[in-house]
Amino acid sequence: MNNAHRTPRNHPIDDVITARGLRRTYGAGKTAFEAVRGVDLQVLAGEVFALLGTNGAGKTSTLDLLEGLAAPTGGEVAVFGLDPRRDRAEVRPFVGTMLQSGGLPAELTVREALEMWRGTCTAPTTADAVLAQVDLTDRAGVRVGALSGGEQRRVDLACALLGRPKLLFLDEPTTGLDPESRRATWRLLADLKAAGVTMVLTTHYLDEAEALADRIAIMHKGAIARSGTLREIVDGHPARIVFDHPGVPLPPLSGARIDAQSRVTVSTHDLQGHLYELLGWAGAQGLRLGGLEARAASLESVFLDIADEPAATPELIGATR
After folding, report:
1. Taking the chain, what is the end-to-end CA distance rounded to the nearest angstrom?
2. pLDDT tens per residue across span 76-115
3. Residues 268, 253: contact at Cβ < 8 Å?
4. N or C, which end of the chain has less CB nearby within 10 Å?
């Protein structure tokens, strides 16, 4: 049976990945560190799910658990309804993984590296097919070590695609790519999604998550801080109006929060109304609001605000675990 048209045990799964109360602790005793703290998440069939994280958020540890590379300290995870670690032999043929660093032998040519990787796949496509997908056909005879960083990332992606996966883990897939190659990769991922491939994407490029992801989860200090569609994450987050302080008392703006420093920042859930009110007040006073900026809430503003939030619980969990 063709690998592209089945899942493990031929079982139709709407939730490709489910995690409940997922935890991962490093060390023991007083120096034990809990990197993943009760994570719940769900990845639906055919969607692109972006897992974002602030510095030290536990994103990599979470990916290790989802990929079956490590056992959780607590909670449970299922991929295609199976345990990705215990049932690895059954799950692995349907999963492609693109790591942050592929580590292919530098002395092999691109084709040799792909043929080597192809030998590890259960029902692979051809090296020529994936070379065409990642636009590296003309580099097939070049040694991996002679490729640019961006080209090496495309070889890593080609390896992940060789097994015709139903689920792709993509860890920083466009790092090192020039803008044209990055957009080409976006188009390829869109084509894969249209073909029914489910993807878990991690990226430092927030515009990449905005462009590709159906749903997004943002991790902070080992937990999911926000999750949902881009609209769900952004809705409810305040817009901002920023301008140079005009040197006179500012008008009250009902429902807004005003931080009146040398640059005034107005946080508001009614951007249009409060901007109209401010401009009307300034006009009546004969004032110009220097350096005026009006910024709608964005994934970037949500992400940066989360990065400034303190941890909910101490990172060092001591001897209580």
Report:
1. 46
2. 999 999 999 999 999 999 999 998 776 789 999 999 999 9
3. yes
4. N
Q: What Å distances lie between residue 7 and 1, 14, 23, 158, CA to CA?
A: 11, 11, 27, 21
Do the Cβ atoms of 202 and 50 come closer than 8 Å? yes
pLDDT digits (tens, 9 = 90+) for 238-254: 999 999 999 999 999 99
Q: What is this structure's pTM?
A: 0.85
Let me know: does 34 contact 315? Beta carbons within 8 Å. yes
Q: Which of 5, 195, 7 is nearest to 94 (CA)?
A: 7
Tell me the Cα Rg of the chain. Answer: 24
Q: Is 150 exposed, middle or buried (0-12, 13-18, 19+ CB in 10 A)?
A: middle
- Asked if residue 250 lies in contact with residue 242, where contact means CB atoms within 8 angstroms, the answer is no
- In the prediction, which pLDDT does 236 show? 81
Give the model confidence (pLDDT) of 117-134 as tens digits: 999 999 999 999 999 999
- Using DSSP's 3-state secondary structure scheme, residue 21 falls into strand
Is pLDDT of 319 > 50? no
